[in-house]
Specification:
Shape: globular
Low-confidence stretches: none
Order of helices and strands: EEEHEEEEHHEHEHEHEHEHEHHEHE
Distance between the termini: 14 Å
Strand content: 25-35%
Number of strands: 15
Length: 326
Amino acid sequence: MKAVLCKELGLADKLVVEDVADPTPGKGMVVVDVKAAGLNFPDTLIIQGKYQFKPDLPFTPGGEGAGVVSAVGEGVTHLNVGDKIIFMCQTGAFAEKVIVPAITAIPMPEGLPFEKAAGITLTYGTSYHAIKDRANLQAGETILVLGAAGGVGIATVELAKAMGATVIAAASTDEKLEFCKASGADELINYETEDMKARLKEITGGKGVDVIYDPVGDHYTETAFRNMAPGGRHLVVGFAAGDIPKVPINLCLLKQASLVGVFWGAWATANPAMQIQNMKDILGMVATGEVKASVNDVFPLADVEAAYACLTERRAKGKVILTTQR
């Protein structure tokens, strides 16, 4: 089978696509013929050795995807060869076949394309866990989404809108903001050309926002936090802009607000039943059309470097997907 391999740490130009042996499932595992896999920000860090989890070299990156079960390991009774599933894994998804724990597999709803199914678990799982479990977002509250046109950003726009919140989308170009508007955002801020502080004051009538979803970091974090309503919750999701911000902790006191960490991967591993229920909730919203799960950038496995560039150069609108289908 073909697989993307990280043989030395570095940027995506170090990745290669080679033939490797087909995997064999162990106890409690299944082999999946991968049809499509989702590319996420952690995938850009793990190949550089900058992520929390550091696999031994060589390894195949990729933490989520969708495909067809082709072999079943000992003790697996709820899955059969031929089942279409959505899966998650620490590594291995950027290949024609992957071994995954059977317990993490979610049956694919009928009619859902593999490319769309492949990009739901990490982005929508992260965003739903963040705004539902960590922020307790309520209908009628206002949420500011930074990096709103990216994978987790657009997922948050759609999910928060479905949950009854007023959604303010912030992004770096007008083109990205139009994409956010089409995905349900109520208000738009171009934080490269507009004064985000002034716009937030204008939009909220000086009250501030109730929840901030922040996968961006850098100087955007403090500006957003300073414009939070009393009792607000600032979700720390990631640092796509590069620098980890150093927010003065006295702002938590003055704003009567909370900085809330979101490490979805660790939570999902520790709480598989809750994660599966969250996925069922998300797929239910996809089925009703409340959540679009937009996919605009699809690359063949052989073009893995171009796929990474689409993400790291902040050109993606929605999910970036790698496909093995010819």
